[in-house]
Amino acid sequence: MHELALTQDLVSLIAEHCAGRQVTRVVLEVGKLSAVVPDAFRFCFELCAAGTPAEGAELEIVELAGRARCRECERELTLDSIFDRCPCGSLSLELLSGEQLQLREVEVQ
Amino acid sequence: MCGICGCSDKPEEQVHERSAHAPGERAARLQLRSSSTLKIEQSLMNKNQRFAEQNRSFLASRSCVAINLMGSPGAGKTALLEALVRRVPELGLLVLEGDQATERDAERIRKAGCPALQINTGTGCHLDAHAVGHGLAQLAPEPGSMIILENVGNLVCPALFDLGESARIVVLSVTEGDDKPLKYPHMFRACDVLVLNKLDLLPYVDFDLERATDYARQLKPGLEVFAVSATRGDGLDSLSNWFRSRGSAR
Question: How many CA atoms lie within 13 A of B62 on its CB side?
């Protein structure tokens, strides 16, 4: 449940930026190769946001596909999961993107 | 017609989530029109990363190095440290022990003859760089020390959090199964060294050392692999040499 710790950091980051204004919407980017579960974020967000300017805000999670290069056949491919293999069968993938965990924007009133 | 966005009133024809039409939503949506959007674009890992860099500076200022030791609960991380401390006291290790609760592991390490400090993470499933920073300050390592950060037993979460270490080790015991690298790729990608432990139990379990090594090296080319038995002593000499090579110039 590292999502709980990360959601606490998310809520602190929001509070740093919103200058006490009420937050209505939060957009979080989650790479599909990051080791986090979006539903766990949603679950934790409601708990962590209580009593902060983000209380009651809508959490929108934008999932971003990963990119990798196969070290065997050298092709570049899109990955939807860290467990994917290259079509050539190789597991030996150099991850190029898809591990991000970023607060993109917040809407405030 | 929907008064919010102009889509159909019939649920089956609506172009957005039905929940957007829940009572109270209309007022909220209308208010949103006067709201403003703040672009943030900051990683959630930044906070941990800042503490990790502080730890790295603290360690460098004392010519110390830290090694992050990870693995499942019961993989034998503490037993491995006990064996290293007893067999190779000249490594001069210091240990920060991470567990959700109890002082047991720190007590075991101290009994083996090495200073150790316990960090209890409570519900936390991993050590983070902030807690490790406090632990390092409390340990007050002598210049040139090597500090082992024994992480909370877990093959997922600890892989995400940089603690300021200079190398990462994952301990995988033969009783856990040789397909663990396939199931927990984040951990095996994140590590520099794989220690295959409980070699003494190999005759009793279906575990293929070569297969485990191959899977792990596909995920992390160049991964160094040591097969050991912490209780019987097999392989500990070469592993000790690895620790010596990673120690600072004391």
Answer: 19
